[in-house]
């Protein structure tokens, strides 16, 4: 049990460290807050809220992993290196894929509600 709590503390240290220092992580948190606010105003269902939550956690997870990979890559070398470029680009690609999926899902949920509310 003590080991589990210690692991949780390390994970929380990582979460707060990235939140304090990484702009992209801060942007993710802001976007998540705004998305939930829009969802609340548009009165999305519990199911839609769960779907959006899963996407938001997915983006956060990929952003944290992307940050960790970038940091590790910079430890390997900060000189120009083609492999490091590939590693960083692929890692950024993962976040991009997840963000695109989340964006499309949010549009699918929000647009009909916006049309319904303002154009009916
Ligand atoms: N050592 C390197 N060698 C070759 N290309 C690199 C190297 N470091 C970065 N790059 C290229 O520059 C891009 C941006 O890298 P960088 O480390 O600045 O990340 P970033 O996208 O600006 O993320 P963040 O804003 O989180 O720092 C990479 O995707 C890669 O294409």
Automatic annotation (TrEMBL):
Going by the entry's taxonomy, the superkingdom of the source organism is recorded as Bacteria
Q: Transmembrane region positions?
A: 25-44, 50-69, 90-111
As to how many cofactors bind and how, the note says: Mn(2+), Zn(2+), Cd(2+) and Co(2+) support activity to lesser extents.
List, alphabetically, the Gene3D superfamilies matched: 1.10.287.3610
- Topology with respect to the bilayer: Multi-pass membrane protein
Q: Which residues bind a divalent metal cation?
A: 22, 70
This protein's cofactor list reads: Mg(2+)
Keywords, in A-Z order = ATP-binding, Cell membrane, Kinase, Lipid biosynthesis, Lipid metabolism, Magnesium, Membrane, Metal-binding, Nucleotide-binding, Phospholipid biosynthesis, Phospholipid metabolism, Transferase, Transmembrane, Transmembrane helix
Q: Which residues are noted in the entry as ATP-binding?
A: 3, 10, 22, 70, 88-89
Location in the cell reads: Cell membrane
Q: Where is the active site?
A: 63
| CC annotations in GO | plasma membrane
Tell me which residues bind substrate: 3, 63
Classify the main location: membrane
Give this protein's Gene Ontology molecular function annotations: ATP binding; kinase activity; metal ion binding
Q: Which family does it belong to?
A: Belongs to the bacterial diacylglycerol kinase family.
**Name this protein carries in UniProt:** Diacylglycerol kinase family protein
This chain's source organism reads: Moheibacter lacus
